[in-house]
Sequence to fold (245 residues):
Amino acid sequence: MILAVAQTKPKRGDIASNLLDHYRLIELAAQNGAQLIAFPEMSITGYERENAMELAFAEDDYRIDHLKDLATDNNIVIIAGAPILIEGKLFIGEFIIAPKDSVSIYTKQFLHEGEDEFFQSTFDYNPMITIENQNISFAICADIDNPKHPENASKNKTDIYIVSIFFTPNGIPNAYRDLQSYAEKHKMNVLMSNFSGESWGTPSAGQSAFWNNKGELIEQMNDSDSGLLLVEKQNDNWISKVIKN
Fold:
């Protein structure tokens, strides 16, 4: 099994440009054998609050059609984030796009302070997928601030916990501490994707990373590069590499 996360520098609100970046990184991940690639929180639009409604995606949005084609053509699962409108309510969400035109949606369950002015939260959209008998579940940013979230993932027999975030340099030490703790406590492999550069007028911390189910940090990117972090499961061990843009 080979999994990838993308560390990206989105252009604020520039959906077309950000999607082109997604396409390129998906192809690169597939060329390196990845069966899944995850992008950061609201990766397609960049992290937004005030402008989220005008940038929002529909559940069956035509703008993810090429992502669906790439998933099928490359036999890869794509996790790409956006503000998503569901039944008239706006959520911080991500599309989980599997081969053969299969799309499900995960929505952020726990919001940061201030996000509730613009977004709803719900537990109703919480899909899991399986690759090579490994159960995979998802989290977005502030979800990991609440220990109930990884605890629920563990109760659902999660093997791999995929976390898409936008954390700043001030916040990333706490994210590292918590994710390492969850990996060790719940015996889950944890794969995290963050922005680098600037988003929402605020610096991002980068440092996308992977912890094995013993809580050992196997690989991390630096705080400034964009590119891919790839991990490969070989029996009970993981090997890793970083590909910089």
Q: What stands out?
A: Residues 136 and 165 are 17 Å apart (CA to CA). The chain is about 20% helix and 35% strand.
